[in-house]
Amino acid sequence: xxxxxxxxxxxVWPEPASSAASGHIMQLLHSFLAQGWTITFxxxxxxxxxxxxxxxxxxxxxxxxxxxxxFDHFITRLQPDIVLFERFMMEEQFGWRxxxxxxxxxxxxxxxxxxxxxxxxxxxxxxxxxxxxxEDDFGELFHTPPHRLFEHMSGTDITQREVAxxxxxxxxxxxxxxxxxxxxxxxxVPAALLHDCPLMVDLxxxxxxxxxxxSHFMCIGNFRHAxxxxxxxxxxxxxxxxxxxxxxxxxxxxxxxxxxxxATALHNPAQGFHIRGWAPDALQVIGQARVALAPLRFxxxxxGKLLDAMICGTPSVTTPVGAEGMRxxxxxxxxxxxxxxxxxxxxxALHEDDALWHAAQARAQDCLxxxxxxxxxxxxxxxxxxxxxxxxxxxxxxxxxxxMLRHHQHKSTRYLAQWIEAKSKLV
Length: 427
Description:
By secondary structure, this protein is α/β, with parallel strands linked by helices. The protein has helices at about 20-35, 70-80, 90-100, 115-130, 140, 145-155, 155-170, 175-185, 225-245, 260-265, 280-285, 305-310, 320-325, 340-350, 355-370, 375-390, 390-395, 400-425, and strands spanning about 5-10, 40-45, 60-65, 80-85, 105-110, 170-175, 195, 215-220, 250-255, 275, 290-295, 315-320, 335.
């Protein structure tokens, strides 16, 4: 079989030290390189502060523009075998051009997480907070059943766009089993269009620091990600005062890329609440802590911060939203709770009880081995893509809805692009 050329159209240039989404993209790139495939990475975004050095990996870089015919010339020359879109917005912008100039290229959607699910949960949280009652127990919110989520999601613009993009692609990488089940059971998306592809870890991981060399609580997450900012606010306003009441000398170190002024304003050493900003090496700061805190009240997908805590052997305290999709089968390496008081109680117990701490740490390795092994998921993804290349026509014939959506997308976006181009010449 001739060499495979993959074009990745990124929502942003990867910054694996800043977000789990970029970390997953880098894992996918490494899995393609392991197959001996050639990769070109293109993005309409400007480079961020912590952009990965793709060229050092032998990956070609190509800036592209939205609504610009230059992309047509670029992809016509490139003729990739596989095109991977990072998030549905990139498929919306460039998918019809790929369809026009590379109709036989396999179209893969990297969902990272379902943005429509995350947005629906955020709206449910806002509605709950507007009621003005206690901010302690969120059990009902955390356990919203799939059919209720579907009711909140199905009529929204973002859900219809995201699910339409999944149908238009030949394969969508789904990071969380919960999201795959939501799509198949509630949205009737065929399972043949989905592929289980979580965050991936090289096993075995390094030996973690012993408890005697660790100190303090920590929390980490990109501040541009709304669930992370909400978690920090809940920590500051509700959880941390409860923890400090039990442990008056406790210290919490909060890390995150792109720290805004509203976050730095929370810095208060007198309360043991330290805003540290971006961490060049997330594993280092997580691995030096006694307990990782991730009190996420909404979100979707897999939480990179919690996977990193497992890698570092650092027990973590989170909510059912944080633990969702993490493949630990009820054996969480730390604690999962639904209220501020219960989260604080669990955090204090893990911080103070050595036996409880070591038992939680031991469960981390089991979770990693069971659900996140790089070799296993990289191999199954390569096999799935190879099978698609062999049977692409039959696969597409069984996805009439996708073909119909591609047809209408191609017509409408082509006319819009022609109108924009003609208007620009008149200016």
